């Protein structure tokens, strides 16, 4: 466990491997353990910086400083303190929002960008976004964080063969402080880049599962609005593609990093 003071909080992170830097950003309500299937593979060729985002895992939170802008500034200050001037970024779900925002706010520090089952406008997801806000808010108010964690993990990993993945994700999601989770979630759902996405020039890989919450067509539409982006689809996968199809995901990512 390594902690460093950034942006008024103690941020916990892993620093693994050597080579070109690769920053891995986890999803809402989870921790750096989202990347357990990537660390042994990616660390053979890259230096991995893997934080617990603020309010998650072993990282702190300060008052009501929630939202993508704070999450982004945390990573900016972390990289500065580690003397890292340029990196590749992989963002899963909420981590994708942070990666997108980082590419806008600190473009000079970004090499390649990988966005995983995420999007540039959480505030404009239509019925999917509205239903997500309604359902998760009701769960937290009436049933609590552990019931919500059970619902989310069951949707992500419904197969009998995924019992271990489901239980592990349910445990770490259920350990969240309900108030912190809710405020992080609500501020995330109010975030969006809008037309700023067209300014991103970095080579970008958008990864979409064929059975994600949002359809492949959603990722196709914003990929076309970017200057230098390609779409990669992983089959037989739901939202947690880096966990439910790690071999296919890892191969897709490494091919993009090494060959594109």
Report on the architecture of this protein.
With 260 residues, this protein is α/β, with parallel strands linked by helices. It has one domain (2-123, 193-259): Rossmann fold (3-Layer(aba) Sandwich). Helix content is 42%, strand content 19%. It has ten helices and eight strands. The protein has helices spanning 39-42, 68-81, 94-105, 127-142, 145-156, 163-174, 178-188, 216-224, 241-244, 246-259; strands at 2-6, 9-16, 20-25, 46-51, 87-92, 110-116, 204-209, 229-234. Strands 1-2-4-3-5-6-7-8 form an eight-stranded mixed sheet, with helices on both faces. The longest helix has 16 residues, at 127-142. The chain starts with a strand and ends with a helix. The model has no long low-confidence stretch (mean pLDDT 96).
What top-tier CATH class fits best? Alpha Beta
SSE string: EEEHEHEHEHHHHEHEHH
Please report the number of helical segments.
10
Q: Work out the strand percent.
A: 15-25%
Query: Residue ranges: pLDDT <50 for 5 or more in a row?
Result: none
CATH hierarchy: architecture:
3-Layer(aba) Sandwich
Q: Output the strand order for the largest sheet.
A: 1-2-4-3-5-6-7-8
Shape: globular
Percent range of helical residues: 40-55%
Overall domain count = 1
Distance between the amino and carboxyl termini: 34 Å
Number of strands: 8
Mean of all residue-level pLDDT scores: 96
Largest sheet properties: 8 strands, mixed
CATH superfamily: Alpha/Beta hydrolase fold, catalytic domain
How big is the Rg? 17 Å
Output the structural class: alpha/beta
């Amino acid at each position: 466990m390594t902690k460093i003071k950034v942006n008024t909080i103690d941020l916990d992170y892993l620093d693994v491997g050597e080579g070109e830097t690769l920053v891995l950003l986890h999803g809402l309500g989870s921790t750096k353990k989202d990347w357990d299937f990537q660390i042994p593979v990616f660390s053979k060729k890259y230096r991995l910086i893997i934080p617990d985002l603020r309010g998650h895992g072993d990282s702190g939170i300060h008052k009501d400083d929630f939202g993508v802008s704070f999450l982004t500034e945390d990573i900016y200050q972390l990289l500065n303190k580690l003397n890292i001037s340029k990196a590749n970024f992989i963002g899963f779900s909420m981590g994708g929002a942070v990666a997108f925002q980082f590419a806008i706010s600190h473009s000079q520090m970004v090499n390649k960008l990988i966005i995983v089952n995420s999007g540039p406008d959480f505030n404009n997801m239509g019925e999917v976004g509205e239903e997500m806000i309604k359902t998760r808010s009701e769960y937290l108010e009436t049933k609590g964080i552990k019931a919500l964690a059970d619902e989310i993990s069951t949707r992500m990993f419904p197969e009998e063969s995924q019992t271990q993945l489901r239980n592990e994700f349910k445990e770490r999601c259920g350990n969240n402080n309900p108030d912190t989770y809710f405020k992080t979630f609500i501020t995330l759902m109010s975030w969006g880049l809008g037309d700023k996405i067209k300014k991103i020039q970095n080579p970008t890989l958008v990864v979409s599962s064929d059975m994600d919450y949002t359809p492949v067509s959603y990722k196709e539409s914003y990929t076309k609005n970017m200057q230098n982006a390609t779409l990669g689809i992983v089959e037989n996968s739901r939202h947690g593609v880096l966990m439910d199809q790690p071999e296919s995901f890892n191969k897709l990512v490494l091919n993009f990093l090494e060959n594109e």
